[in-house]
């Protein structure tokens, strides 16, 4: 870990990505304790943090289960001693040699798939290579993206293809992607129940066909905070809870004050006529992620706090160019002279995964103002 | 230059950023020749390519003028021998020491500003340090973002503040940011005229007050292809013309076939019920840039071509998650079995600057299928 206790974050050139370490640790602990109290394992999705240093805090041990969205994440984390992954993006034949290398290196990594076609590809690879690739079937619990319905006999067919081919059929996995659009506690609770019910139904159907699911995996940050009953579920996955963001605040699983991540920016100009504050954080620092704004709302690419983290009511990032952001007040004109050129502000992200992805490093600030620089894993 | 003529791009793991070298060189030459025929200098904006290797082709010589959007670009390019920059984002005091270091290293780099406040900051720094910082005043030619109106006496006031403080007042600069929304050749021609007229008016007003503008700088890719008359203009700036993208095709300054940049992706699944093709290029590979889609159009995050670069009519990227893209056909259902899991496709970017910014490297493919890897400059 690259520690530099003399470097003050206010001396860094803007824009930069700031991580409040205490808040990050608080967030990590909050979900860990919730899952412990429910007696179900947590398998954090590391696509949010994408950092070895951050992973040291997110995963309790080197053998703790983790989820990744790229093989690069698994490879870099494996080189740091982590041993237990699900690669949670549908597998293709071209990526199997890298899976094999990881397995040969003593890393447990499972792939996911949702078609006979993919099962045949994996089985053929296992047969040819002698490599026993663990595979999970992705279930569709809410029509969000991909996956197989939990009552489809395809599940049995795919499990058989994998087993016959010398792969390891390990279980089922689902993700309540639609839970990001929940608007009440009732909807969240229902999404969590539906996710669990879907996984359980698939596992039962497979068991009825004498196929064991060692892993029955569910999860998303909204449902991970909303589920109450996990019988038959072996693990819960979630990622963005480590940092939280404005989308999660809108969904209702955190407050804006729980957001550990921000982009520190400087005022670089004023458009007095239009009441615009111009800052040096454009989409290059924030991403263009629109968050969850509905059609009747104005665009917002982030809310604004002062350099100490106090939300400045009424301000929002209304437009982005590559290296320019425009901040407006909901009431139109405001006293721009209160925020002269050079003033530093923090932008709270719509989507922490997307904002963090625009940066190579985290500038991590602890409660005593000591800082560390954490590297983000880059690429695929 | 990292050349590897054995590496075939089809063997790379997807997603990756592919640059068609011949098309890139064609695009670079096209604007260079246009500006040469108009007798005005071209100052390419390197924020698009952000790569030393690409810059070798974009700039004819090490002393050729260039525009940058971050000091990091200037620093990395200066280390490769490039010598002549405008940092085209409003300057703040905290960035002046890095400007000074570049100047002391024999690099010519000018800053831009659009307020008395900033002029005083620059003047104070010059007075204290003895460093003569060249500065341009940013003009507002179309109400796009920042800048001072070309008829404002503030221009004279700011030039005097700079000169008295020991800075070098070097001229004026404007950017027709609204030209991205032009919908006809007439509108483009008008935007180009307005940009030139604005800069010329400001230069004349300053000259009338015995202040010389050594630099009178205009530019944007749409106006750079639309202007016909550059009297009194010393240079034209443009960036995205090097790659082109779907926004520029919509604006009308290129065809989709002129786009040199694409993201190569693999089909990783099908949602047969919904008629969705699922690919391994999400916003992490494409960015979330929405392009120029109007309210009555469906969202599109890119168009789709086959692996040989032939546009597949009717397909568009309709939704993005972190590592997943969803491709739909404009007619709804289509024969997904024609594109089985593992099929490679290319996604043409809405906004080349944004899509390229999601990657660390370009996989550059020449007409003989030889490839090179070019590094992108990262961070600020």
UniProtKB/TrEMBL annotation, chains A, B:
One of its GO terms (biological process) is D-serine catabolic process. Keywords: Lyase. It comes from the Bacteria. Residues 260-366 form the D-serine dehydratase-like domain. Pfam families: Ala_racemase_N, D-ser_dehydrat. The keyword Cell wall biogenesis/degradation does not apply. The keyword Lyase applies. Gene3D superfamilies: Alanine racemase (3.20.20.10), D-serine dehydratase-like domain (2.40.37.20). One of its GO terms (molecular function) is D-serine ammonia-lyase activity. PANTHER family: D-SERINE DEHYDRATASE, ZGC:162816-RELATED. Belongs to the DSD1 family. This is Alanine racemase. It comes from Vibrio penaeicida.
């Amino acid at each position: 870990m690259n520690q530099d206790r003399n470097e003050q974050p206010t001396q860094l050139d803007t824009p930069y990505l700031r991580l409040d370490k205490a808040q990050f640790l608080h967030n990590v602990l909050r979900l860990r304790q919730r899952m412990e109290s429910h007696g179900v394992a947590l398998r954090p999705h590391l696509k949010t943090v994408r950092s070895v240093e951050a992973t040291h805090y997110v995963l309790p041990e080197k053998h703790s289960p983790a989820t990744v969205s790229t093989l690069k994440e698994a490879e870099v984390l494996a080189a740091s001693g982590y041993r237990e992954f699900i690669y949670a993006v549908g597998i293709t034949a071209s990526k199997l040699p890298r899976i094999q290398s990881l397995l040969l290196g003593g890393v447990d990594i499972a792939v996911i798939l949702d078609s006979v076609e993919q099962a045949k590809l994996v089985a053929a690879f296992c047969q040819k290579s002698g490599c026993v690739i663990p595979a999970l079937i992705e279930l569709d619990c809410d029509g969000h993206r991909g996956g197989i319905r939990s009552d489809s006999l395809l599940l049995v067919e795919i499990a058989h293809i994998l087993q016959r081919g010398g792969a390891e059929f390990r279980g089922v996995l689902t993700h309540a992607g639609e839970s990001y659009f929940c608007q009440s506690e009732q909807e969240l609770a229902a999404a969590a129940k539906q996710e669990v019910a879907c996984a359980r139904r698939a596992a039962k159907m497979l068991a009825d066909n004498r196929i064991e699911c060692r892993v029955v995996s569910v999860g998303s940050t909204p449902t991970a905070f909303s589920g109450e009953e996990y019988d038959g579920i072996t693990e819960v996955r979630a990622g963005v809870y480590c940092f939280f963001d404005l989308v999660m605040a809108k969904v209702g699983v955190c407050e804006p004050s729980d957001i550990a991540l921000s982009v520190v920016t400087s005022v670089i100009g004023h458009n007095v006529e239009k009441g615009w504050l111009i800052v040096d954080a454009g989409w290059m620092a924030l991403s263009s992620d629109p968050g969850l704004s509905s059609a009747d709302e104005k665009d917002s690419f982030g809310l604004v706090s002062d350099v100490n983290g106090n939300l400045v009511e009424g301000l929002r990032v209304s437009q982005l160019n590559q290296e320019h952001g425009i901040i407006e007040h909901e009431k139109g004109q405001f006293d721009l002279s209160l925020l002269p050129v050079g003033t530093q502000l923090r932008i709270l992200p719509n989507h922490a995964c997307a904002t963090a992805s625009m940066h190579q490093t985290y500038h991590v600030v602890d409660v005593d103002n000591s800082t560390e620089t954490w590297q983000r894993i880059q690429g695929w």
